[in-house]
TrEMBL record:
GO cellular component: protein farnesyltransferase complex
Stored Pfam families: Prenyltrans (PF00432)
Tree of life domain: Eukaryota
Keyword Oxidoreductase attributed: no
Entry keyword set: Metal-binding, Prenyltransferase, Repeat, Transferase, Zinc
Protein name (database record): Prenyltransferase alpha-alpha toroid domain-containing protein
The keyword Nucleotide-binding belongs to this UniProt entry's keyword annotation: no
Gene3D superfamilies registered for this protein in UniProt: 1.50.10.20
GO MF entries: metal ion binding; protein farnesyltransferase activity
Family: Belongs to the protein prenyltransferase subunit beta family.
Residue stretches making up the Prenyltransferase alpha-alpha toroid domain: 1-173
Cofactor(s) required, per the database record: Zn(2+)
């Protein structure tokens, strides 16, 4: 709503609704991308849901999934004159910035989730010292998947051992890609309920 504070969950839902309804190009995608990039915190590596708030594991999906969705709408490509050459003064983020990755620091987000959001008892949490719960486990895992699986045929970006790779998700629906495809196939065969009333 105009005039209210921007929020990561609402931003995701707004973009997803735009995509599902075919109206995504009516949104100010440049401002959304700028805002989403600004929500990843440099020290922690995680995303905050609103300005002046702490990072939270669940926003790894709510904010992190914006990047694959925006990339599908308007693929990022860096003109050859602007390509970043890696040197002694290149930041770790700049080293990972490439058209075959998202416009956020995918490794830093995975570091935050894997190092800070895994309590000893299992699951994933908001932030230390909080305990894990189903909500944060679900959205943190979805965020890890969104950050690992790059555009096109680019190999995954995985922090740590190869066993840390999680299955790909459909970032629009927040479920595994194969489940999303099956759901679309199933529902595409059904007659739309409003079509009967015409």
């Amino acid at each position: 709503e105009p005039g209210n504070e921007a929020h990561g969950g609402y931003a995701f839902c707004g973009l997803a609704t735009g995509i599902l309804s075919g109206t995504e190009n009516q949104l100010d995608l440049d401002r959304l991308l700028y805002w989403a990039c600004s929500r990843q915190k440099g020290f922690e590596g995680g995303f905050q849901g609103r300005t002046n708030k702490l990072v939270d594991g669940c926003y790894s999906f709510w904010q992190g999934a914006l990047f694959p969705l925006l990339h599908k709408i308007r693929p990022f490509s860096m003109p050859p004159s602007e390509e970043i050459s890696v040197g002694p003064h290149t930041s770790p983020f700049e080293e990972t910035l490439h058209e075959s990755s998202w416009l956020c620091n995918q490794r830093a987000l995975q570091d935050y989730l894997l190092l800070c959001c895994q309590p000893i008892g299992g699951g994933l949490c908001d932030k230390p010292p909080k305990g894990s719960d189903y909500y944060h486990t679900c959205y943190a895992l979805n965020g890890i998947s969104a950050m690992q699986h790059n555009p096109g045929d680019t190999p995954p970006t995985v922090v740590g051992k190869a066993g840390n790779l999680v299955l790909p998700i459909d970032p629009l629906h927040g479920i595994r890609t194969e489940k999303s495809k099956r759901a679309k196939e199933y529902f595409s065969k059904l007659q739309h309920p409003c079509a009967e009333n015409k």
